[in-house]
Amino acid sequence: MVALIPNDVFQFSTHSALTDLTSGKPLPQDLSSHGDFGLCAFSASRPLLLIAGAPFIVDEACNLHPVAPADERLAFAMVSVFRPDSSLMFPNGKLTRKTLGTAFDEASRNSICPFSFQASFTSVKLSSNATGSEDGVVARELKDVEGFVFGYAVPEWMRGICGPRVFCWFVASGGSGDDGRPGGRAGGWVVDFEGTGEVEVR
């Protein structure tokens, strides 16, 4: 097997095809052979998150479940072996989906760039839909929450192939007694967010 390259992107299908495809090829258990973090979908209305090598489905109320159908194939997948090698700093109250996209523009990132960050948020708007659009339907809004974001910064010229400029998911941090696993937590594909405090995006 060829060694996986950190931060390289494995992609199946195109983002613009999500609205038409209802079946695909990769199985959820195949994803870990391509990376440990990613955004995937069985169809436009059924997203799947790859978190630390484990697949999680998202229900209509934007809660995560660790049981993915073993024999159902994915219509779309973007997966990476995520190993951050640079960072962007955002001062207090300056981190939103729009400002994050602008920062990647100013950093002249003209290729797909995986990123992640842990932060406190005044607001996180989530969608149970897999299109990841900035003007998508908000299925759930979380207020004053902490959590983890992973996603891809996508150059504008690749939008139809890979997704919107900032294409990401969110998982809420667990409370007291949490076992560290995301199952049962709030999460899903991000419509928008407002970070608070200084945040390092890696």
UniProtKB/TrEMBL annotation:
<dbReference type="GO" id="GO:0045151">
    <property type="term" value="P:acetoin biosynthetic process"/>
</dbReference>
<dbReference type="GO" id="GO:0047605">
    <property type="term" value="F:acetolactate decarboxylase activity"/>
</dbReference>
<keyword id="KW-0210">Decarboxylase</keyword>
<protein>
    <recommendedName>
        <fullName>Alpha-acetolactate decarboxylase</fullName>
        <ecNumber>4.1.1.5</ecNumber>
    </recommendedName>
</protein>
<dbReference type="Pfam" id="PF03306">
    <property type="entry name" value="AAL_decarboxy"/>
</dbReference>
<dbReference type="InterPro" id="IPR005128">
    <property type="entry name" value="Acetolactate_a_deCO2ase"/>
</dbReference>
<keyword id="KW-0456">Lyase</keyword>
<keyword id="KW-0005">Acetoin biosynthesis</keyword>
<comment type="pathway">
    <text>Polyol metabolism; (R,R)-butane-2,3-diol biosynthesis; (R,R)-butane-2,3-diol from pyruvate: step 2/3.</text>
</comment>
<comment type="similarity">
    <text>Belongs to the alpha-acetolactate decarboxylase family.</text>
</comment>
